[in-house]
Amino acid sequence: SQKIEQNSEALNIQEGKTATLTCNYTNYSPAYLQWYRQDPGRGPVFLLLIRENEKEKRKERLKVTFDTTLKQSLFHITASQPADSATYLCALDERGATNKLIFGTGTLLAVQP
Amino acid sequence: DAGVIQSPRHEVTEMGQEVTLRCKPISGHDYLFWYRQTMMRGLELLIYFNNNVPIDDSGMPEDRFSAKMPNASFSTLKIQPSEPRDSAVYFCASTGGELAKNIQYFGAGTRLSVL
Fold first, then answer.
1. Residue ranges of chain A whose CB lies within 8 Å of a chain B CB
2. CA distances from B9 to B73, B110, B111 (A)
3. Cβ A44–B91 below 8 Å, yes or no?
4. How do residues B100-114 score in pLDDT, each as one tens digit?
């Protein structure tokens, strides 16, 4: 069956360290993968999109990698800040279904000052 | 643009009552999505529309749920009759156009509590 798995446990790190979140999937062949941020009481907000032919994408302190062989994406936040505390969701497209996304359950990140 | 607008923000109702959730997508977007989010199941896609036409409703839990999009600027998700297990946060999202291609923009959600 199709499955998208993210770190089920909350991730606690110290301010200034690099946070690394994982997204593993099975039985999908996505053309692209996205990461969203969700704060309590709000809807998810898009952060980054990486395509199947891209190995790495960066945006300011954010970096995403995409390994289609391992079926895994890693999401890094460098020099983390307490304001980065949120739930982070990965999402895959369903090939053949334009714009349809399947979301992982998310990882709660807590950055301690 | 004001973004995706959902109403109401909170809804408390009793079992058996009809519930209607509303969504106004971003102007110019031609895709609209309805999601449900719970702690147990995460963010689940219920149904999505393209140019006001339902494309995939395979995520709709059962016949008690229905969704419509009468025009490009308005959609509703209706639950009739509602049950306690429908309690969740319901999100609407939209996408479209070259600049927003593949990226979904979410509303603030409607928190539904069915007592």
1. 32, 34, 41-46, 49, 89, 93, 97-106
2. 18, 4, 6
3. yes
4. 678 999 999 999 999
The residue type at B68: K
Please tell me the number of Cα atoms within 13 Å of A5 on its side-chain side: 12
Collapse the DSSP code of B22 into the 3-class scheme (helix H, G, I; strand E, B; otherwise coil) and give the result.
Answer: strand
Peptide bond just before B70 cis, omega within 30 deg? no
Q: What are phi and psi of B33, to 5 degrees?
A: -125, 145
Task: Please name the amino acid found at residue A48.
Answer: L
Q: Is B25 on the interface with A (CB under 8 A)?
A: no
Whether A2 and A26 have beta carbons less than 8 Å apart is answered as yes
- Tokens standing for residue B34: 């309805």
Pairing of strands B10-13, B110-114: parallel
| B33-68: pLDDT as tens digits | 999 999 989 999 999 999 999 999 999 988 999 999
